[in-house]
Amino acid sequence: MTTPTNVNNLSLYHYQSCPYCVVTRKALGQLDIDVVQRDVIQQPKYRSELMAGGGKAQVPCLRIEGENGKVSWMYESGDIIQYLRSYAKQAAKQMA
Ligand SMILES: N[C@@H](CCC(=O)N[C@@H](CS)C(=O)NCC(=O)O)C(=O)O
After folding, report:
1. Domain map of the chain by residue range?
2. In the sheet that 5-14 helps form, which strands lie side by side, from edge to edge?
3. Ligand 1 cavity residues, CB under 6 Å
4. Distance from residue 96's CA to the centre of ligand 1 (Å)
5. I need a surface site. Which of 1, 22, 48, 82 has the fewest CB within 10 A?
6. How far is the CA of 18 from the centre of ligand 1 (A)?
7. Residue 6: its pLDDT value, please?
8. Are 34 and 2 in contact (CB under 8 A)?
9. What per-residue confidence (pLDDT) applies to 1?
10. Which of 20, 21, 50 for mutating ligand 1's site (highest number of atoms within 8 Å of CB)?
């Protein structure tokens, strides 16, 4: 059994029934990456954060906080999943 990679610089803005969010959350599970998940329907303040930070209400959106504290907002499930795959690869390399 593996321990999920707990990541504190990433958070996923999403909601349960959004199909693009479903595939993104599935990828998180498969890659064993544990990020903070912010449901924009259950918590309207997260929708406001998303609008203010990313510029639009579209989900899923991955909030990425860089080492320098710079924050970026990634939309598009395909891009997010690709980013998460390289993140997992990088994390695995560091563990080796
Ligand atoms: N091409 C996008 C589509 C995302 C999308 O259409 N999300 C819908 C929810 S399923 C949404 O947020 N719609 C509201 C909006 O765009 O403001 C992706 O793959 O992530």
Report:
1. 5-95
2. 33-39, 5-14, 61-65, 71-75
3. 18-20, 56-60, 76-78
4. 37
5. 1
6. 8
7. 73
8. no
9. 52
10. 20
Tokens representing residue 28 in the block: 């998180």
41, containing H or E segment = none
Pairing mode of beta strands 71-75, 5-14: unpaired
Atom of ligand 1 nearest to the CA of 76: 20
Q: Read off the tokens for 23.
A: 């595939």
pLDDT along the chain (96 residues), means of 10: 76 98 98 96 98 98 95 98 96 88
Place of tokens 């395909």: 78
Task: Check: CB of residue 68 under 8 Å from CB of residue 51.
Answer: no
Give the pLDDT of residue 70: 96
Strands 61-65 and 71-75: what pairing? antiparallel
